C-alpha cells in the first residue's frame, strides 16, 4: 500500500471552558451531548478497529493528535483511549495536544501520565515526542479581550507550573523521550489596529512573547527532558468575512512589524511572521525540509498526510472539519462536508480520497479561479489595482492563495473546496502579499526582494 496518511486527529472533546470570540466551534448544549458519545466511543478499541482499520493502513500512523474544543477536560478517559489506540497504531511515535492551558494543570499531567503508562503497547515501547501547543494570543489586552477576563494570568501560571512539574518529575515518564511546548497566538484585525495606532502596544506584544520564552530559557534550558520552541510569532484569525479595510489594516500592521528594531529584543529576529515564510519556502523553493509530511508540497496536510475521526467513526480531512461537525448547523456547507468530504465505508473513502487527491495534487484550476477573483476584485476596488496589470504578481499571489486556502472555509463560503473566497483576496491583495513576499525574498537572498513586472 502506498504510504499516505501518517497522522490521525481525534475529536477528543466537544466542550470547552472558554468562549473565545473567534472560535468556529458553536458552543451549545448539543456539544455536551456529543461529548458523552465521544467519551463512550473513542476509548472503545473494537469501535476504532472496525471504523479505521478497513479504511487506512495502521502500520503507517506515526502521530495521534488530540483536538477539541478543550481536550484536557476529558483527561479521565486518556488512559483508556491510549490503551485502545496504541494497541492498533503500534508505530505511533508522537502525541500532539492543543490546549488553552486554563484548566487545572493536573488534567494535562494525567494525560501525559496515561500516555507514558500505555506506551509499552507500542512497537518501540516508548513515545518519541509529546507535543503540547498552548493557545495564548498575547498580553492581557489581547488574550483577555479575545478569550475571557483573567485568562492571560491563568495560562501563564499554568505554563510555569507545568514546566516546574516536568523539571522535578522527569523520572516519572521513562517511556516519553521528550516533551515539546510551543505557543500559538492568534490575533484579529481589531488587535492589529490597536497596535497600528500605538507603537508601545506593538512592542508590548513581542516583549510578552519573549517573557514566555525567558521563563524557560533562564530556568530550565538544560533540563534534558522538555523544551520550549522559541518565542511565539503571531498567526492570524482564519479569514472568512474580511473587508477591504481589514486587508489594509493587515498591510499597515505588516509595515509596522517589519520596521521594528529587533536589536531591542532578546530573542526575536527577522523574519517575525514565520507562518507565511515557511509557506513561501515550501511552495516557491520546494524546500526538502518540509517533504516528510507535506507530501504534495502545495497544500496543507489535511486529507493528505493526516486524517481525522469523529465520535461516529466518520473520517474527515482534518480537525477543522471535525469542529465544523455540529448537528445544529444545517447549512449547505455542512451538507457538502458530511456527504462528500467524509467517509464511513471503503466506498465512501475511495470517493473521499479521489476528491482530496484532486485538491492536493492539481493547482491549475484553483490558480485560475483565484486569478479571476483577484482581477475582478481589483477592477471594483476590492484589491490593489496592480492586480490588473502585473502578471507576475498575479501568478505568484494566485499560487500562494490557492496553496494556503482552507478547503473547509472554501466549501463553507463558496460551495467548492477549490474556490478561494473573496474575503481571502481582500485580506492578502491589498498590499499584504507584496510585503510578505518581498521580505521573504530578501531574507532568502533572492534578487532584491522586489516582485518583477510581467513580460
Architecture of the largest domain in CATH? Alpha-Beta Barrel
Element order: H for helix, E for strand = EHHEHEHEHHEEHHEEHHEEHHHHHHHH
Strand content: 5-15%
Return Rg in Å. 22 Å
Number of helices: 18
Task: State the domain count.
Answer: 2
- Low-confidence stretches at least 5 residues in length (pLDDT < 50)? 287-296
Shape: globular
Can you tell me the CATH class of the largest domain? Alpha Beta
Overall average pLDDT = 85
- End-to-end separation in angstroms reads 45 Å
Structural class by sheet pairing and helices: alpha/beta
Describe this protein's structure:
The protein is 47% helix and 9% strand. The strands form 2 sheets. The chain has an 8-stranded mixed sheet. The chain has 2 domains: 7-242 and 264-350, TIM Barrel, CATH 3.20.20; 243-263 and 363-455, no CATH class. The chain contains 18 helices and 10 strands. The longest helix is centred in the middle third of the chain and has 19 residues, at 199-217.
